[in-house]
Amino acid sequence: IMIQIVVVGLVCAAGTQAAQLPNYMTGDFQLETSEGFSDFMSEMGIGWFQRSIACTLYPVQKIREGSDGQITIETLSSFQSKKQSFRLGQQFFSDTDTADGIE
Question: Are 86 and 70 in contact (CB under 8 A)?
């Protein structure tokens, strides 16, 4: 199971150029620990086997922003990889499910 939480809170005043991500929000990010994650997933009703697999994964997230303002988040792991793109200030609907089938 991979829970991806991305919180981007940028405000852009009307009539100004579209907001860009700050440099510290782009790059490659490696999960360092999943401490407490199994307990969290257990409370969500996820079974032991899926929790065991999820806690062995250390995914890398690659966050990029193109010159056209498109933001791409690519999540890579040995279990599953996915890529999503969006633009700040535009409504976004994910077309991918989590590893356990939750939409």
Answer: yes
